[in-house]
Amino acid sequence: MTLPKDRTAAQDRTRRMVLLSIWIAILLGFPLWWKTTRVYRAELPFDEVEQWSQWSSCRPAFPLKINVHLSDAVSLPGSVNPQQQHEAIVSEIINKVQSSSPSSGSQNLPLEVVLVDQAWRGTKEQDILDRPSAVPGTYDFYISPTSSTSKKTSVSIKSQRQGWIQVADWTQDQISSAVAETLERVFGSERTKIQKLLDRQDEEEAAKVKTAVKYASGYQLTFSLFSGDTSNGVREWKMQEAINTYMAPFLRTMSVVSKFTVESQVQHYASLTFQPDLDATAKEYYLTPDKLPNFINTAEWSLASTVSSLPSLNFLVYVPPADQSPLVIKSGPGAPPSKTNSFLIPRWGGITVLNRPANDPILTVSELEPVMKIFLSQLRDLLGLSDLSTSVPAGSFPITFQKNEATSMTTWELDQLLRKRISENLVDSIKTLGSLARLVADTPNMVVLDPIQEDVTQALLDVKAACEKVQGSSSSSLSTGSAVEEALQHSRDALEKAESAFFDPTMVSMLYFPDEHKYAIYMPLFVPISVPLLLSLLKELKKWAAAKKEAKAKASAKKTAGQDADAEHVHDRKEEAEDRKTK
């Protein structure tokens, strides 16, 4: 027969085993739950991103090689040893260039001046034109005495990385001064721009207004003809032939920087969203500058490209209806109309208003020539091409620039654009990676998967490769144009990888499930379960503590009783011993 006391002890053991098994399951399951529900965050190289933001690892620099060709038609006065004379000229040129350029910006475009030993007669300009340089960053300057009767120094910058400097006084000091001033005036503005770009000193100004589009490896050019109605007879235009004639050479030259795809379209009955004003005196309709931002009728005009996903640049020819012709752009009645009758929309494209007679249903190539020249000028602005003739400051002698009529772009402008785009890509890549690093650091519940880590790592490798291609380049490594083109490719890849990591859709998957939502989901489930478990655990702990205390008290009492018995036994033995002695 089981005693009640034994039955109670068995029930206590069973209850404790059940409670213990529940808590063991909780303790063993908690790490698994934590592992399966935590936000995965791959390690990102924050320190390396910070170093690049300060250009601690590598600062981009674009070394320029300047080949100086002295004319041997006239000997330098007092030249005994030509070799020593040449070395002295080069040294003096370098010293004057360094003294005239700011020390903070000279590191961006370091110059290597080399005096070429090859003889140059310096008598015909054709001799210069027949010797173009095919290497980006390598320029040839031909120096000769002036042939004019005015005896003044003059400089002519040719289109293929050549320059002709005609010096008034054929002396070492005049030659070095003319070359040094020419180099500073031609490259000084670019050096300052690159310096500000790398140091991010012009971010606020650039954010306010920036005509050029953001760099991309390719662009979609869309040429559109919008006709107000069909009464003017425009039913067809020879745009493809016009593109091949006026635009294709430029696009082929620009293919080093970006690729282009071209499409064209015609849309009739394209009405404006407003009524143009009438100048009764001039008998013409006009658009004021404040109405130009609303010129495009986005609700009815189809401008979205379905050919590719590349960034689109739009060039629009608008032929007004007969009842609104002629239509010009001017500031108000009586004001002179715009010479080009066109305007540019920053980062979007250009628009030209074309007034034409209604007797010809076809826009011919010759009729499109002025329009294409306007579009070509607008495309240059949109792509960030700078006109050297407008950026060179005034000096002690004139500098003229030769245009390239065949391609509408000189190699000087192409080189500047390459250096500018490489710098922009590197700066934008590092800015994007820095923004990503701050975003991840400030958002603990943001997912960072391994592909994002790989993109960031690869972007940093491409930034390093691009920087080393240009920063570590010497004149020997620039013997071909591949170094600059490879640097552009690496900077392009770095920007694409950085933006791919920043805009990865998996990063926002947990942003809509913050910790507050977790508490709201788990508390209704775990609080009702955890309260009885905790109370039961506390109750059992109290019982265990009380039982332990009771057992300890019993053991202490038993020990005390044993000690009393031993003492009494010793006392009895002593009394017996004393009695035996008395007897």
From TrEMBL:
Q: Which residues cross the membrane?
A: 17-34, 519-538
Q: Name one GO biological process term.
A: GPI anchor biosynthetic process
This protein's UniProt keywords? Endoplasmic reticulum, Glycoprotein, GPI-anchor biosynthesis, Membrane, Transmembrane, Transmembrane helix
- Principal location class: endoplasmic reticulum
- Give the record's family classification: Belongs to the PIGS family.
Give the UniProt subcellular location, in the record's own words: Endoplasmic reticulum membrane
For bias type Basic and acidic residues, the affected ranges are 566-583
Q: Does the keyword Manganese apply?
A: no
Q: Where is this region: Disordered?
A: 555-583
Where does this protein act, in terms of pathway? Glycolipid biosynthesis; glycosylphosphatidylinositol-anchor biosynthesis
- InterPro entries in the record: PtdIno-glycan_biosynth_class_S
Please give, as recorded in its UniProt entry, the membrane topology of this protein.
Multi-pass membrane protein
Q: What is this protein called?
A: GPI-anchor transamidase subunit S
Cellular component annotations (GO), alphabetically ordered: GPI-anchor transamidase complex
Q: Which Pfam families match?
A: PIG-S
